[in-house]
Amino acid sequence: MAAIQVKADVAGSVWQITTKVGQKIEAGETIMIIESMKMEIPVIAEQDGTIDKFMVDEKTAISEGQVLAVLTR
Amino acid sequence: MSDDWSAEVEELRLRRRDAMALGGAEAVAKHHERGRLTIRERVTRLVDTDSFKEVGTLTGQGRYDGATLKGVTPAPYVMGLASIDGRPVAVGGEDFTIRGGSSWSGDRKKGGQGGFIEDLAASYRIPLVNLIDGSGGSVTSINKRGHSIFPGVHGFERSVELLGKVPVVSAVLGTAAGGPAGRAILSHWSVMVDGTSHVFAAGPPVVERSLGQKIGKEDLGGTQIAVDLAGTIDNRVDSEEACFAELRRFLSYMPSNVWEAPPEVACTDPVDRCDEELLSTVPKDRRKPYNMRKLIGHIVDNGSVFEIQPTYGKALITCLARMNGKVVGIVANNPMVYGGAMDVKAARKQIHFVEMCDCFHIPLIFLVDVPGFMVGRDAEAAATLRDGMRAVYVGLQATVPTYTVVIRKCYGMAGMGTTEKNGLEFKIAWPSAEWGSLPIEGGVAAAFRRELANAPDAKAREREIEAELRAMASPFRTAEAFGVEEIVDPRETRPYLCRFIDAAQARIRTSLGPKAKYGVRP
């Protein structure tokens, strides 16, 4: 099973985690929402997979490139 | 004495045979094992069938027994004239199978850093394609010459000149270090291949000796570093075949030189296509972003988008595209990344793209949704302000027809760089547009500090003031004052722009040639 790291395109803070560990998601689906520059920016899955774990909590301040979640496929 | 030249022609045949053998069967097999094509295979796959006419085939190091030729080690660079989509191009590249494609000097260089191939591109005013696979100079040349050479004896002056005259494209197809790496950067567009291409100023042995840092080629200059993180090379592809297809595609948008207009193609997509989705693309909730790439697709000719640097500086989208068959350059802020704010990477990306389009007389369309320059300590430490102002400076120097379409936000200094100050300054807005020196929600706290300090409920008063100001910030009020020239129904953006871009062709045809450069970029 390959692990896929989901990384942040932007610095900001985690606004809302909209998925759950164990949830199957498809490419294009929103995993969580980051608040950055007063905008709600969705973190979108680039590949299909199952959410293995989150590396951040809601309200966590994050930096660009930080790993937010790990998917398995 | 007989007039028969058969013996000499036989010698020519033998010399050509040696040249075609490159570094020999063993070296070629090793090169193939690494997943790479030889330079002649690369040229053949890139250009129109049977169009390659090689120059300098016999150049190399002859081995003699007295006066008898024993063989020739070819110079590790192959080049000549070819055509792509029926248009002539100068094409050349290092032969890695001979001494790793390191540089070679005869009476005259073939290419790689100046040389005949760059002279050909300059003299005939045709595009130059560099197929780069070499590591530049070697210290062994000191042994050969008995002295070391001064940097730039075979310099980049011609390469620099070409950037203002003909399209220059570079593909990094192996390891490019030193001079060849620098050559790749002196291009209008560059591309490299995942896994098999690497580019750096100096490779792992030099890094270890200089810094004590042990690092592999992939971590030092693979596509993730050179393309995604650094933007050193523009685009990445997954195979050499894909690379050649992308090179041909890029050149299809380019004129052969700055004295010609960009190539027009027949358009099968209706000019009056008004896509219904555009009416609901921009969310009413100002905190919600939308998909700018989809928006671009609704406006330009179907299938015409060629994105430049898609994985670098993601707060900005730059692409070549067509409108009614005419080439345009699209510069669009991406609200999905930093709300479209201009960070240092977006600024660098915009600078190169705007200069390139201006150079080749490709009209620019700015699809504006920019809240300003990126803010915060990291952004300041990265010199966002300086590179951001460079983007503004370059935009204000451009003389190509430019269309400003404000989709949502147009604020501050970043917003200033999106209009055609040397021409019509034609600004079109969607009803969702808003503008100003800074976004209202960011500015109220500072501008009304005293009033807010004295208010019984400061937060509530702040929101009230914001609402009052926002009501006056309607784009229709600015249109009343002719502060923007037109507000369009989003669905009508394509027909409206196509009409003006068609009409601007006369201006483009009558202002061709090199662009004068002046001033000092800040």
Please, could you describe this protein's structure?
The complex is a heterodimer of chains A (73) and B (522). Chain A has 73 residues and is an all-beta fold. Chain A has one domain (3-72): OB fold (Dihydrolipoamide Acetyltransferase, E2P). In chain A, 0% of the residues lie in helices and 55% in strands. In chain A, the strands form two sheets. Chain A has a four-stranded antiparallel β-sheet, with no helix packed on it. Chain A has a four-stranded antiparallel β-sheet with strand order 5-4-2-7, with no helix packed on it. The termini of chain A are close together. The mean pLDDT of chain A is 92. Chain B is α/β, with parallel strands linked by helices and 522 residues long. Chain B has three domains: 36-59 and 75-252, 2-enoyl-CoA Hydratase, Chain A, domain 1 (Alpha-Beta Complex), CATH 3.90.226.10; 276-433 and 484-509, 2-enoyl-CoA Hydratase, Chain A, domain 1, CATH 3.90.226; 437-473, no CATH class. Helix content of chain B is 37%, strand content 19%. Chain B contains 22 helices and 19 strands. In chain B, the strands form four sheets. In chain B, strands 12, 13, 14, 15, 16, 17, 18 and 19 form an eight-stranded mixed β-sheet that branches. In chain B, helix 13 runs parallel beside helix 15. The longest helix of chain B has 16 residues, at 344-359. The A-B interface holds A 9-11, 36-42, 63-64 and B 287-289, 314, 335-339, 341, 371, 374-376, 378, 439, 441-442.
